[in-house]
Design a protein that fits this description.
15 helices; binds magnesium ion; globular; binds uridine-diphosphate-N-acetylglucosamine; mainly alpha; disordered N terminus; 422 residues; two-stranded antiparallel ribbon
């Protein structure tokens, strides 16, 4: 039986390392109270903030072909249904995971009564399953049997599903850190093997006079790059974590930016293949966004469920796949700017130059309810050191605003560089 790994609110000490703690067997209990209801008001506000500009672009700003608009709207309808199913299923799944002792303690509440509550873990599994069902069903509405896209679409789904499985395996078995870093490279294999698209890159215009050509075929190196991108996206979401709502929040912000980027690219292009690549991204990112919002309604401060590595790996892989097949991996990396910064800050601890504790979280003061930054190299701690002590939800909001600013800057950058850069 899967004994839960981290009743660690009380036993996480400075001597812990990135290696997992020894599993602790807790006898199964069935009398845990039901989780708190979803924060629906927050989600409703987010829904309007996100959907108004989006639907404005689809219906008024750009002249999309009716066929394409129809597919996007069918997909949006399915995604909406997915949102409600996910929101309904999370409390059900929570009782099941608690029964199997799959829970965690909220470390940033340690020393308060909330810090002793068993918070159900790995609820990303519900998001992942609903996402997979939506993405599989959607093929019926969009693709014909001989569509070339079917092969890559299904390979993308296989990679996402494989990652979901490995993330869940990690949550249950607590895989050692160095192995954990490699899991996404296995999960990316289905996509890498099936990928038959181009392996060329366009040389930035300012560099063309120096290199002497405009297009470079990277061959297998391009596939290696795709694999590394998948490894980066998954792990970078997973290590920019540990605050209520941060894992899902960053995904929601990035996925929204991807969605708007795709619509802008479709609207501005006349090349059918280019449009199809971006449409393909939309068909995957809409369900990701909808199901993630449902999880967000439970995971926002104070979290009534944790998302688990199941979710962080799943969401990272989904976005990597969406960026690869939509052919906008450079833009994706700019959307991931906070994750890149967090990764760079983490390098000394990740690669063993500096001691890496099991949790690199801030210090919580139960008297004031505020977090103080520690010396662990994370963006979370960096923010606290720069802006001073903060409550958990304020810090998370600040980090999500920073994520949104990074995405907005990416749009500005693209606007100014288009035509000059490529
Ligand atoms: C990664 C980070 C680790 C961070 C952890 C938090 C690295 C190398 N690893 O490890 O520093 O502490 O994520 O997710 O950067 N938790 C909370 N509040 C939350 C979310 C999670 O207290 O809002 C705690 C809970 O005890 C939960 C646990 O973190 O059970 C989940 O940790 P896990 O995802 O297993 O950590 P890692 O991904 O290994
Ligand atoms: Mg994690």
């Amino acid at each position: 039986m899967a004994a839960r790994k981290r009743p660690s609110a009380t036993n996480s000490t400075a001597t812990d390392t990135c290696e997992p703690t020894t599993p602790v067997s807790v006898p199964p209990k069935t009398d845990d109270p039901p989780i708190a209801p979803p924060k629906s008001g927050l989600i409703l506000k987010l829904f309007f903030i996100l959907s108004l500009p989006y639907f404005y672009l689809i219906f008024y700003h750009y002249q999309l072909e009716s066929e394409l608009r129809r597919s996007i709207l069918i997909n949006a309808g399915l995604s909406l249904a997915g949102f409600f199913v996910t929101q309904k299923m999370i409390p059900v799944a929570s009782t099941y995971v608690l029964r199997r002792n799959l829970f965690g303690f909220d470390i940033n509440k340690k020393g308060t009564p909330q810090g002793t509550v068993k918070v159900p873990e790995s609820l990303g599994i519900v998001v992942g399953i609903v996402f997979m069902v939506l993405a599989i069903l959607f093929q019926y509405f969009n693709f014909t049997a001989d569509s070339n896209w079917l092969v890559e679409y299904n390979a993308a789904l296989a990679s996402i599903c494989f990652m979901l499985l490995l993330g869940f395996v990690d949550d249950v078995l607590d895989v050692p850190w160095r192995v954990k870093l490699l899991l996404p490279s296995f999960a990316a294999l289905p996509l890498l093997m099936a990928y038959a698209g181009h392996t060329t890159i366009i040389i930035p215009k300012p560099l063309v006079p120096y290199v002497g050509f405009k297009i470079l075929d990277l061959g297998w190196i391009y596939k290696l790059y795709m694999g590394l991108l998948a490894v980066f996206c998954t792990n970078s979401i997973n290590i920019h974590a540990g605050l209520n709502g941060l894992e899902v929040g960053q995904t929601v912000v990035i996925a929204s930016a991807i969605l708007i980027h795709n619509i802008m690219q479709i609207g501005a292009s006349v090349d059918p293949e280019y449009k199809q690549a971006h449409a393909f991204s939309i068909y995957l990112v809409q369900p990701l966004l909808a199901t993630s919002l449902a999880l967000f309604s439970y995971n926002w401060y104070p979290s009534s469920v944790f998302v688990g590595d199941t979710y962080t790996y799943f969401a990272g892989m989904a976005m990597a796949v969406i960026g690869i097949l939509g052919h906008f991996s450079e833009t994706l990396l700019i959307f991931f700017a906070p994750q890149v910064i967090n990764f760079l800050l983490s390098v000394p601890q990740l690669f063993g130059f500096v001691k890496c504790p099991r949790h690199r979280l801030p210090r919580f003061d139960p008297q004031t309810g505020l977090l103080t930054g520690t010396n662990d190299g994370t963006l979370v701690n960096f923010f606290l050191r720069i802006f001073g002590k903060m409550s958990e939800n304020r810090l998370c909001t600040a980090l999500l605003v920073f994520q949104a600013i990074a995405c907005a800057l990416c749009f500005v950058l693209r606007y100014f560089l288009t035509g000059w850069y490529k």
